[in-house]
Write a structure and sequence with these properties.
It is found in: Cytoplasm, Cytoskeleton. This protein has about 600 residues and is mainly α. It contains 21 helices and no strands. The protein has helices at about 10-25, 35-55, 60-80, 85-100, 110-125, 130-150, 170-195, 195-215, 220-235, 240-255, 275-300, 310-335, 340-350, 360-380, 390-410, 410-430, 440-465, 470-495, 510-530, 535-555, 565-594.
Length: about 600
């Protein structure tokens, strides 16, 4: 390119000064004048624009591109100072000037960056589909250029550089790829907004991969995004991909403070005091991974009454070798992160926990222990003082880990002890909660505690059935567990009452099933209470009948409720028919002894 007159070095100097004001000095601006440096930069850019208009050398095409660079810089400047309309005008002018030459090496990078910024601008206006159009256009242009030319194009800044200052091809390529990575990053967010979740995940994965390849990331932000992506893969039961995201997140997070290339980073790194919170967030994603893996394995292994099916277990173990071979092939096809320098660390991290379904207690316990370690790590930051909701969610996940591990345990006594651990962690939390402020959490804990006591009671009954004769200790234990379960179910049902303590005539949809299941379980629990006092037994049977009858009557009155509790309703109808006759026989027996 020919120089535009004798004043060209001064023009370049002004342009460089404007960029320094925007990128560096603006970070030091006082809160009272947050855009002081941006406004100074704008003034300099306008000066350069005037000088450029007066220039006669360089040729029309060269001048058009330089004007486009200035329109771009002014567009970004106005957008940064929240003047979106002016920003849009400048960015549109930039693309208009470049339109005839957008596929040339001189223009393609600038055109893509202008499209990116128009995409961001329309996102800020909540016009997501318009943003999508600009960003997809930028993506298509990148792909077309790489197919038709592929040589490293000029960086926009080079249009205001002397020949000897121009960038190397390597640096040009790096900056061009970074601009395209931004395109993909913003497209991932756009697809997320448009609920195109699968596409959003795909673009997020590609963005993260490219950021590693081109060293364009900050460790904490990258790790956080990778951990978030893992949760999408979990929802699809893609455990290998989820584990890979989390292993990479943990490895990259450990680089915090040693930024490979800070000037190329895509996001502003959080303050150092945020590190413990970010670390705890990644730990929580690991907990979800372990929990989901165990719960998915349980679904595969359970029979129609929710117990472990030994035949299914043997069948799955036989299948595993073949599946592992296929998964390994699939892994090689999968989009995995990692440059050579971090690959080994990520693989070592992955080896700490399986990504295949655990099929017996030993395998389940290994996954459980990893999850439990991350529970401790997450609780170090999310303590009950200051993070009540987060802390309780972590404890609930810990309880859920014990619950699913108990499924794999064949020994009923040991299984009972696992459920007791759940009680010990949940009851103190529940006791300290004020339902006025934490009603939803209180209800969750009431139901979980009730279900846990109920499960323990069932296990004690099963243990008792193996004995020749029930001893008084076992009877006492069964009754105590049943009464605790009833207590928590009743507390949950009481929480649904209005201020006048009246139970709702029609239940809200979100509490319909939990309320009906609570009523059904209370009915069953009263039937399980063991007493030698026939009068007390009759009272228990009567209470049991009342709860079963409630379910049947409610579903007759509100037929739309039937689909939510079909199994419980069938059993309730059966009991409503059977119980009166049983009670009559007991009454006759009592009166014959009188």
């Amino acid at each position: 390119m020919a120089a535009a007159g004798a004043g060209w070095p001064a023009v370049c100097e002004k342009f460089r000064a404007a960029r320094t004001l925007s990128a560096v000095e603006s970070l030091k601006d006082p809160e009272t004048e947050p855009y002081r440096s941006k406004y100074s930069a704008r003034a300099l850019l306008q000066e350069v624009k005037q000088l450029l208009s007066a220039a006669e050398e360089g040729g029309e095409a060269v001048l058009a591109v330089r004007r486009a660079v200035l329109e771009y810089e002014l567009g970004v400047n106005h957008t940064d100072t929240e003047e979106l309309s002016a920003g849009e005008e400048h960015l549109q002018r930039c693309t208009q000037l470049l339109e005839p030459h957008r596929l040339s090496p001189d223009c393609v990078s600038l055109y893509i960056q202008a499209q990116n910024n128009l995409g961001i601008l329309w996102s800020q206006r909540d016009e997501i589909e318009t943003a999508q159009t600009y960003l997809e256009s930028a993506e298509a242009l990148y792909n077309q250029y790489m197919k038709e030319d592929g040589n490293p194009p000029l960086d926009p800044s080079e249009h205001f550089m002397a020949e000897e200052e121009k960038l190397t091809d390597q640096e040009r390529s790096k900056r061009f790829e970074k601009a395209y990575t931004h395109t993909l990053y913003y497209l991932a967010q756009v697809y997320q907004h448009l609920d195109m979740i699968e596409k959003a995940a795909q673009y997020c994965h590609t963005t993260l991969k490219r950021q590693l390849e081109y060293c364009g990331y900050y460790p904490v932000e990258w790790a956080r995004n990778a951990a978030t992506l893992s949760q999408y893969y979990l929802s699809k039961e893609c455990f290998m991909e989820a584990r890979h995201c989390l292993a990479a997140a943990s490895v990259i997070f450990s680089q915090a403070g040693q930024v490979p290339s800070a000037e190329d980073a895509d996001e502003t790194e959080p303050d150092q005091q945020d590190l413990p919170e970010r670390k705890a967030e990644i730990a929580r994603c690991w907990i979800k991974y372990c929990l989901n893996l165990l719960q998915s394995a349980r679904k595969l292994l359970e029979d129609n009454i929710g117990e472990l099916d030994p035949d299914r277990q043997l069948e799955l173990k036989a299948q595993r070798k073949k599946e592992e071979d296929e998964k390994e092939k699939g892994r090689k096809k999968a989009v995995l992160f990692g440059t050579s320098d971090i690959c080994d660390s990520v693989l070592a991290m992955e080896e700490k926990v399986s990504s295949v379904y655990p099929l017996d207690f030993q395998e389940a316990r290994e996954v459980f222990l990893v999850g439990q370690n991350y529970v401790q790590e997450a609780k170090e930051f999310f303590q009950v003082d200051g993070y009540v909701t987060d802390h309780i969610e972590i404890v609930q996940d810990h309880s859920a880990l014990f619950k699913v591990l108990a499924f794999f345990e064949e020994d009923y006594e040991r299984r009972c002890k696992m459920h007791k651990r759940r009680i010990d962690m949940l009851e103190p939390i529940y006791a300290d909660l004020n339902p006025q402020y934490y009603l939803l959490i209180c209800r969750q804990l009431q139901c979980e505690l009730a279900d846990t006591y109920y499960e323990m009671m069932d296990l004690k009954v099963a243990i008792g059935n193996r004995l020749e004769k029930l001893d008084s200790h076992t009877v006492k234990k069964i009754n105590s567990l049943a009464q605790f379960a009833i207590k928590y179910y009743e507390l949950f049902l009481d929480s649904l009452r209005n201020p006048d303590k009246v139970f709702p005539e029609k239940l809200e949809e979100d509490v319909l099933r939990p309320a009906m299941v609570a009523k059904f379980h209370i009915a069953r629990l009263y039937g399980k209470l063991i007493t030698s006092d026939s009068k007390k037994q009759l009272e228990n049977m009567q209470t049991s009948l009342e709860y079963y009858t409630f379910l049947v009557d409610y579903c007759e009155k509100y037929p739309d409720a039937v689909s939510a509790i079909e199994t419980e309703l069938e059993l309730s109808k059966e009991m409503v028919n059977l119980l009166p006759a049983s009670m009559e026989r007991l009454r006759a027996k009592v009166s014959s002894f009188a």
